[in-house]
Design brief:
Helix content is about 75%, strand content about 0%. It is an all-alpha fold and about 280 residues long. The chain is elongated, with a radius of gyration of 20 Å. The two termini are about 35 Å apart.
């Protein structure tokens, strides 16, 4: 007759942290195996930004103007990088909601696992795939004529800002995914698309009407994109407003604020699921 032995639960903060990171590694590995076995999902997430780059770069690019002058393709690419990071929320929302609908989340919750560790595993997996998305999009940018003008150091800092934005929005996606059905998650792109347009992704806010310019300049995506343009050395008139003059600070502050708000909300929602 076999006897099951319950695992010893961690008591000290160090043990809890080690427990959480161990669970995160296992969950992240599980998610990555799913990506490898179903690469079509990654291709679908890449298809839209690649089509947009070609469309705006070659079809509309000749008719677009950049406030302050400069090549539109170089103006466009940091905006496309930022938009891709935002649209990554869609895959996060859908994957989390699908796991909840299929009972995967309930199975994790029935095990002696760390709530934070399970969600961090999801975040790590999404960060790895988002990094791959960004690398492929950067290579596509080089093909259409985009260039880095300020050297490798500032360019890596810009990439770090983009990934920080993605990491912050992962927690928004997890929080939404734990509340939505897979059908509802499929419509997550609807509020995100205007959010990425009401920013400096495709046109300078200085070319927008006055009230819309204010909305665009205070958009968190605008801060990240403008900071990336400055770090890459790409064209784009910053403007004289406070958010335009402090884009780098806001590009760090906005994602950190989002993490502080949505990470605890995600963990709380996970623990109270189905209550």
């Amino acid at each position: 007759m076999s006897t099951s032995i319950a695992p010893v639960m961690p008591r000290t903060p160090v043990e809890r942290l080690r427990w959480a990171f161990s669970d995160a590694r296992i969950v992240a590995g599980r998610e990555l195996i799913h990506w490898v076995r179903n690469p079509v999902v990654i291709l679908n997430t890449l298809l839209f930004p690649l089509v947009m780059v070609m469309l705006f770069g070659y079809v509309f690019g000749s008719a677009m103007t950049v406030a302050g002058g400069g090549d539109y393709r170089e103006f466009l690419m940091p905006g496309m990088f930022g938009q891709t990071m935002v649209f990554g929320v869609i895959s996060t929302v859908y994957a989390v909601s699908l796991n909840a609908a299929r009972g995967v989340t309930d199975r994790f919750r029935s095990m002696p696992t760390s709530s934070f560790g399970v969600l961090m595993g999801r975040a790590v997996a999404d960060m790895l795939t988002s990094t791959l998305d960004l690398v492929i999009l950067v290579l596509c940018g080089f093909l259409v004529g985009w260039r880095v003008r300020n050297g490798i150091g500032p360019a890596l800092a810009a990439v770090g800002l983009l990934l920080l934005l993605r990491f912050a929005l992962i927690w928004v996606g997890i929080c939404m995914g734990l509340r939505l059905t897979p059908e509802g998650a499929g419509a997550a792109w609807m509020p995100l698309f205007p959010l990425t347009l009401l920013a400096n992704t495709f046109v300078s806010p200085q070319l927008m009407p006055g009230w819309l310019q204010v909305v665009a300049e205070w958009n968190p995506l605008s801060a990240v994109v403008l900071a990336c343009r400055e770090l890459f050395g790409n064209p784009g008139l910053a403007g004289q407003s406070w958010p335009a003059q402090h884009a780098l600070e806001l590009a760090i502050a906005w994602p950190l604020l989002i993490i502080v708000i949505f990470l605890p909300l995600s963990v709380r929602r996970y623990r109270r699921l189905n209550r």
